[in-house]
Design a protein that fits this description.
The protein is of the alpha+beta class. 48% of the residues lie in helices and 11% in strands.
Length: 211
């Protein structure tokens, strides 16, 4: 009987420890960004050379890889950009038009035209105008089509190639490129990254950027 009680106590202790470990992982560790320790220079160069748009603030840069209709990207911009901008963070948004998959269109002609224009002009006001209306209501006024224009089509393809290049580099650092994927530098000068699809990741981004 005594031995059974000891075994029962040991099992209970292990169960409590396991529950604690699970809780720490579930509510904390799984949402933390990753420190980029491999391919830093290559990743930084890819991001800097992309056709990002930003409000031109003087604070730390935060690169965001996104596509217009992504609900998680829209949520992050809506909920976090005002706070980040108030703290001076320069949000550098890299909009891409995704490739078709198995014959299914993942972007529209209007989206491709607007992405090409953003990459070519780096016009933050254009991005704000695009995001101020529902996706289906945007008509890309005054923007030349990308389809049928070899130069603008190449710009659209450049965004897709950027994602292709970033994906394995980030994967080597434990980050799966999803939307939005964020990359920044913390106060220690470390490159940090996360696929910040969930609100649970936001607090870490804010903290590391001094917000």
């Amino acid at each position: 009987m005594r031995r059974l009680k000891l075994w029962g106590s040991a099992i209970l202790v292990l169960a409590v420890i396991a529950a604690g470990v699970w809780a720490v992982w579930s509510f904390e560790l799984r949402w933390r960004p990753k420190t980029v320790t491999k391919h830093q220079a290559e990743i930084a160069q890819l991001l800097k050379s992309a056709g990002w748009v930003s409000p031109g603030l003087k604070g730390e840069p935060l690169y965001m890889v996104s596509f217009r209709s992504c609900p998680d990207s829209i949520r992050f911009k809506t909920e976090q950009f005002p706070r980040l901008h108030a703290a001076g963070v320069d949000t550098r948004v890299i909009e891409i038009a995704r490739r078709d998959v198995d014959g299914l269109a993942k972007s529209t002609p209007i989206e491709r035209a607007t992405v090409a224009q953003l990459w070519l002009t780096r016009d933050w006001k254009l991005m704000e105008a695009w995001e101020s209306v529902p996706v289906e209501a945007w008509k890309a006024p005054g923007i030349p089509p990308a389809d049928g224009d070899l130069a603008r089509t190449a710009v659209v393809e450049g965004g897709r190639s950027l994602v292709d290049a970033l994906r394995p580099l980030l994967k080597d650092n434990g980050v799966d490129l999803r939307y939005p994927t964020l990359v920044w530098w913390n106060a220690k000068g470390q490159m940090r990254a996360c696929a910040c699809e969930k609100r649970e990741t936001y607090r870490f981004v804010r903290k590391e950027l001094g917000v």
